[in-house]
Task: inverse folding
C-alpha cells in the first residue's frame, strides 16, 4: 500500500544572537504550522543563534545534553505530536570540545531524537565586497551521510552549503531517501544567484522532494540572509516559497510522486561507473 499524503511545513525565521529569543520565536511558528495541519515541520539552519562574533559564539554554545534549544524543541515535538526537524543547532563538538558542530536533529512526535546529522561541507567562501565566511575555523565537519525513516518514507539529511555537492544527495537517494532536508541560512548574493536553481536541481536529479527552511532578513553585524524557504516536488516544481519575511509555508506531499518521477526518468538506475 502506498504511503499516505501529508502536509509539510517550512518555518522561516530571523534568528538573533540570544538563544532564548530564538526559541520563543521558532516555537510560536511551529505551533502555527501545526495548527495549519502540518505533520512534518522543519526549522532553518542555526536556528538557536546567529552570533557572528567567534568569541561570543563559543561562550554561548552548549553541549548537546545542555542545549536549551534542543530541550525546548524536543518538548515542542511532544506537545504538538508532529515530526520536527530542528534544522540545525550550534553545539559543542562531542569529541573535540575546542570546536563546534552544526548539527541537525530529527525529533519524533514523542520528543525522542530520531536522527542527528553534522554538516559535512564547511562554508569557506569569499563573496567580495568584504563578505567572507570561514566556518572551518569554528566548526568540525561531519563525516557521515545520514538517513532516517519517517512514516511516509525515508529522509536524507543535509544542511545549507551541502546543497552544492550533488554526490551527497545521490548517496542519500541510493540509501532510499525520498525526501531531502536542506535547512539553510543562505547569503543574499548566493541566494539570488543559486538558491532556486540548486534546490530544483537536487530534486530533479534524484526524483525526490526537497524541504528547505531558511533564515531571512537582517541579523547581527549586518549579516543578511535570503529567505525563500522552498518545498520542491520530484519533478522540480516549486510547491511553496516563503518569500522574504518571517513565517510558515506548507504543501501537501504525495510520496507516490517519487516513484512516478523515478519511473519516468530512471536516472538512479542509469548511473554508470567511469574513470
Result:
Amino acid at each position: 500500500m502506498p504511503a499516505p499524503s501529508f502536509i509539510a511545513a517550512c518555518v522561516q525565521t530571523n534568528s538573533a544572537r540570544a538563544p532564548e529569543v530564538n526559541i520563543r520565536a521558532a516555537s510560536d511558528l511551529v505551533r502555527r504550522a501545526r495548527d495549519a495541519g502540518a505533520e512534518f515541520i522543519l526549522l532553518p539552519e542555526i536556528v538557536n543563534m546567529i552570533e557572528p562574533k567567534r568569541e561570543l559564539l563559543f561562550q554561548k554554545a552548549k553541549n548537546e545534553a545542555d542545549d536549551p534549544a534542543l530541550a525546548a524543541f524536543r518538548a515542542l515535538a511532544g506537545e504538538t505530536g508532529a515530526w520536527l526537524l530542528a534544522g540545525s543547532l550550534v553545539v559543542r563538538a562531542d569529541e573535540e570540545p575546542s570546536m563546534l558542530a552544526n548539527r541537525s536533529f530529527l525529533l519524533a512526535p514523542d520528543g525522542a531524537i530520531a536522527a542527528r546529522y553534522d554538516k559535512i561541507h564547511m562554508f569557506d567562501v569569499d563573496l567580495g565586497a568584504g563578505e567572507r565566511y570561514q566556518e572551518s575555523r569554528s566548526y568540525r565537519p561531519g563525516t557521515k551521510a545520514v538517513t532516517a525513516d519517517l512514516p511516509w518514507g525515508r529522509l536524507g539529511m543535509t544542511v545549507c552549503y551541502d546543497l552544492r555537492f550533488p554526490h551527497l544527495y545521490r548517496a542519500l537517494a541510493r540509501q532510499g531517501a525520498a525526501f531531502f532536508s536542506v535547512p539553510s541560512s543562505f547569503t543574499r548574493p548566493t541566494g539570488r544567484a543559486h538558491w532556486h536553481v540548486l534546490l530544483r536541481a537536487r530534486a530533479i536529479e534524484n526524483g525526490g522532494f526537497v524541504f528547505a527552511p531558511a533564515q531571512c532578513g537582517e541579523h547581527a553585524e549586518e549579516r543578511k540572509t535570503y529567505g525563500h524557504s522552498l518545498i520542491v516536488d520530484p519533478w522540480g516544481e516549486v510547491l511553496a516559497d516563503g518569500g522574504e519575511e518571517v513565517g510558515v509555508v506548507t504543501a501537501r506531499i504525495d510520496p507516490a510522486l517519487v516513484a512516478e518521477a523515478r519511473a519516468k526518468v530512471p536516472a538512479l538506475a542509469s548511473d554508470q561507473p567511469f574513470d
